[in-house]
Design a protein that fits this description.
heterodimer, A: 360 residues, alpha/beta, D-Maltodextrin-Binding Protein, domain 2, three-stranded antiparallel sheet, 13 helices, 44% helix, B: 542 residues, mainly alpha, 2 domains, two-stranded antiparallel ribbon, 70% helix, globular
Chain lengths: 360, 542
């Protein structure tokens, strides 16, 4: 209750601020500190991306605020997001920067979720593809061999209902028999377990793939398979990912294996979950009562960052040149993806509770 | 290789970078001396400042702080008896006991020199081992990591006090404190009773400060005495130097233990310090003085903790998986300077690698020298009656504790645990196993869960698991059978043939015979950890 009164009074104060002329926005963040809450441990893709964007946001936000990237891991990102729900300020100085690990438990109405993600405002998002790869010890040489593994496939993940969901669904779509081991505390340790041979099929988000897995591929210790794909004009995940164009998408792999385009509830579920995960990848959320003026400031800053040649050069190095998204269209797309159809919801709940023992 | 080393040294000797390194060292020294605040706090405080510097200077500053914290924490541990950082709790036990006997200078001298050797071993290992450390890290799968944690816990439970049952009970208490808060494998909470404060679990620095720092302060105030009954004089370093030389091999072995602790992600300085301390007890002929002021205990634990924090950088640089909390922050700094550690790091940025090595080596040596210089001044503080310095001391501990979540819960928890620690001290229940249990509860649970999911029960027979399980001095159930057979020694470790050999062969029929044979001939304490795993399994099965 106290918190509510406090945040309401902050909101009232901010409404007052927003009424002030545009000129005041020039230095909106002057002398302020923005806390970027990352609900995962340091070393994972989200943390790396937040640190990567930090200097550009500091440079392009009006008033050159200081950014602090704070990691709050735990509960497969639910804890950090709950902390954000309880403690974040609504003036744009607290940002929740996270992946579908936070979105999926919310969509599925999982126990322990206190944050109301669909109400949050979207400040910006960083698209992130994921690449699936296997160990050569499985005998698999390319995506179409996936069913001919000479060893049982073992996948390592954090939590079924989190960012592992699109990966697990892609195995369902393709009908691949994979044993899933969940409970790692980040994708970094999973990668280590892959190198150790404890798991032999893995998904990594592109930046980690490019810096950590590609060297293994070159040394013949990993075989890249496919990417999640990217969206075509109709919002379907049929296209190859521009970040790793040499690899087929899940859609293509299915077509090659079965001679027809994928359909059915598995595909629909994959399509929905994967587009939130990959197409909008990492999303920066703010509290619902954050004033529109703050979101406009961020939209402008993101435009400036995308145009910054230094960002373009760095981004080419880390993500093969992915650009940031911001603005009303992005926000609308993310919000609609956060509310899937009842059929898909029911299928996901059924799969998660029966196959992965997730409690609802 | 060598020209990269030379280039990096030249780069480090630019005035700005040296200044940054020494600035970091000063901060590290102060944080090491403040009870409960360790490397993590020092590095977090410095983090915002490094961005005003260039990449090499900024990283040198962080490394300066990390390398010195575990040297200067010896001062607080010895003079006050409160661990300067969580990983120097054994030093606090032995060193403070020596200080009370008027031998503070000896304890401090050995502590500083051992820390220096630990830091230098870490630096050498970084330089030499990075090309070969990859395979070692990769040999340690989740079952091995679980076994490491279990062995660490048993080391701690068995080493202090005569009563093993109490040690185990204290370790269980620690594990219990450690499971409060988020479960590691599911979005579930335990023992939170609807309190928001408990959602994050307890912080290590509060548990260490409460059980040791506050408890010592209460106990000293309640007996009305000073820190030392006679004022501590720190003047004659000579004895410390000769002790250091006597125990040089022990220190080196402890540093190697520390380095291995660093290789293993999630087994931090606190755990490997105890393992090294346990090794010191195990390899000593006269064990009676441990707990009452034994210089070997200080030599071992200070050698180990410094080596661990440096070796924590090995998995960080090779795999981007931080070996400990301070290394995690260092990783963040590397990212923001545009370095993405990974298998290519060594070939792509050899200059940076050597800069890290030189910074650590230089900071270890200069840090020890600085500690020798400031200690005589600080020792004068002990002439002040404790009643007078108790208030500011407790205030500092409260501030340290309050850094964790900055809520009032931190302070309640600090004093709650302080009272518990005081009760334990007076009832002669060892507090160290509780601390180690707390530290290892998380990794133990997580690795157990993963190991069982990935390997089923077959992981119990993996060679790595068996070798780790047989690590020395876990317990000695059967020291009486073979006590007199230890005439041959290897690096000072008594060798002998015994029961565990037979069990080993029995358990590992399929495994390469010769390696087992060679290994068993130097080991003799396997049965108990194996039995304990079986018990633990029963306990964990639903």
């Amino acid at each position: 209750m106290k918190n509510q009164i406090k945040s309401m009074s902050v909101a009232v104060a901010l409404v007052g601020l927003c009424a002030a002329p545009l000129a005041a926005q020039d230095n909106y963040f002057a002398g302020k500190t923005i806390d970027v809450i990352v609900p995962f441990g340091p070393g994972g893709a989200t943390f790396v991306s937040a640190k990567f964007l930090e200097p550009f946001l500091e440079k392009h936000l009006p008033g050159n605020p200081q950014l602090n990237v704070i990691d709050r891991p735990g509960g497969g990102s639910i804890l950090g997001a709950n902390w954000f729900e309880q403690n974040a300020k609504s003036d744009g100085t607290t940002i929740l920067f996270t992946t579908s690990s936070t979105a999926n438990p919310f969509v599925l109405g999982q126990q322990g979720v206190e944050y109301k993600l669909a109400d949050y405002r979207v400040a910006y998002s960083h698209p992130f593809s994921a690449v699936a790869y296997v160990s050569p010890s499985t005998g698999i040489k390319s995506a179409s061999d996936i069913k001919d593994s000479i060893k049982p496939l073992v996948y390592g993940g954090i939590a079924a209902a989190a960012s592992d969901l699109p990966g697990l669904l892609s195995f369902e779509v393709l009908g691949v028999d994979v044993k899933s081991v969940l409970g790692f505390n980040g994708r970094g340790p999973v990668r280590l377990a892959f190198e150790q041979g404890e798991v032999n099929i893995d998904y990594q988000f592109t930046p980690v793939y490019l810096t950590q897995v590609v060297p293994s591929v070159e040394e013949g210790r990993a075989v890249p398979l496919w990417t999640g794909g990217s969206i075509d004009g109709d919002g379907k995940l049929t296209q190859r990912d521009p970040i790793a164009p040499e690899l087929p998408s899940v859609y293509e792999v299915y077509k090659e294996m079965n001679g027809m385009a994928p359909e059915g509830i598995e595909w629909e579920a994959f399509q929905g979950v994967a587009s939130v995960t990959y197409a909008y990848g990492l999303t920066a959320y703010m509290k619902p009562d954050t004033p529109q003026a703050v979101l406009d400031i961020f939209e402008q800053a993101i435009k400036d960052i995308n145009a910054d040649p230094e960002f373009q050069a760095e981004s080419l190095k880390v993500t093969n040149g992915a650009r940031l998204n911001a603005g009303p269209a992005t926000e609308a797309a993310i919000k609609s993806a956060l509310s899937p159809s009842a059929d898909v919801k029911a299928y996901l709940k059924d799969l998660l509770s029966n196959k992965f023992g997730v409690k609802f | 290789m060598l020209d990269h080393a030379q280039l990096a040294l030249e780069a480090l000797f630019e005035p700005v970078r040296l200044l940054a390194l020494f600035g970091g060292m000063l901060v590290g020294m102060v944080f090491g001396m403040l009870p409960g605040l360790g490397g993590v706090a020092a590095v977090s405080i410095l983090l915002p400042f490094i961005y005003y510097l260039d990449d090499f200077s900024g990283l040198a500053m962080l490394l300066g702080a990390v390398s010195v914290v575990y040297t200067s924490d010896t001062i607080t541990s010895v003079l006050i008896g409160a661990p300067g950082s969580p990983a120097s709790a054994p030093t606090a036990i032995e060193g403070h006991a020596l200080a009370k006997q008027g031998q503070a200078a000896r304890a401090l001298g050995v502590g500083f020199l051992a820390s220096m050797v630990g830091g230098l071993s870490g630096a050498v290992i970084l330089a030499v081992a990075i090309p070969v450390a990859g395979p070692i890290v990769l040999m340690l799968g989740t079952p091995e990591l679980f076994m490491f944690a279990v062995v660490g816990l048993f080391f701690a439970a068995s080493m202090i006090g005569k009563d093993l049952a109490r040690g185990l009970a204290a370790a269980c208490l620690g594990v219990f404190l450690g499971v409060v808060g988020p479960a590691s494998a599911a979005a579930d909470f335990r023992f939170t009773f609807g309190q928001v404060y408990l959602l994050d679990g307890f912080s290590l620095s509060i548990v260490a400060l409460g059980l040791f720092g506050v408890a010592e302060a209460i106990s000293m105030l309640s007996c009305g005495g000073g820190i030392s009954h006679i004022p501590v004089k720190v003047s004659r370093w000579g004895e410390g130097f000769s002790d250091f030389w006597t125990h040089r091999w022990l220190i080196l072995r402890s540093s190697i233990i520390g380095v291995f602790g660093g290789f293993v992600p999630a087994v931090g300085a606190s755990a490997s310090t105890w393992v090294a301390y346990g090794h010191a007890i195990r390899s000593a002929k006269d064990k009676s003085k441990f707990g009452k002021g034994e210089i070997r205990g200080i030599a071992a634990s200070e050698g180990a903790n410094n080596a661990t924090v440096i070796a924590d950088l090995v998995p960080t640089l090779l795999f981007s998986v931080p070996g400990g909390p301070a290394a995690a922050i260092f990783l963040g700094a590397l990212f923001s300077f545009g370095y993405y550690p990974g298998p290519r790091m060594i070939s792509q940025n050899p200059d940076l690698m050597f800069l890290i090595i030189w910074s650590v080596a230089l900071a270890s040596i200069v840090g020890a020298a600085m500690c020798f210089l400031v200690t005589p001044v600080l020792a004068k503080l002990t002439r002040i009656p404790f009643g007078i310095i108790a208030a500011p001391l407790i205030l500092i501990m409260v501030i340290g504790a309050y850094q964790s979540t900055s809520t009032i819960g931190d302070i309640f928890l600090l004093f709650g645990l302080g009272a518990l620690g005081w009760l334990m001290k007076h009832a002669e229940w060892p507090r160290a196993p509780a601390l180690v249990g707390f530290v290892l509860a998380g990794p133990m649970e997580q690795y157990f869960w993963l190991a069982n999911q990935i390997h089923g029960w077959s992981w119990l027979l993996r060679p790595g698991v068996l070798i780790i399980a047989s690590f020395k001095s876990v317990f000695d159930f059967h020291p009486y059978f073979f006590a007199n057979e230890t005439s041959i020694t290897f690096l000072g470790v008594p060798l002998g043939f015994d029961l565990s050999y037979l069990i080993f062969i029995f358990l590992s029929g399929k495994i390469k015979f010769k390696i087992i044979f060679a290994y068993c001939s130097i080991e003799r304490s396997l049965p108990v950890p194996i039995l304990s795993i079986v018990c633990l399994n029963r306990f964990f099965i639903k």
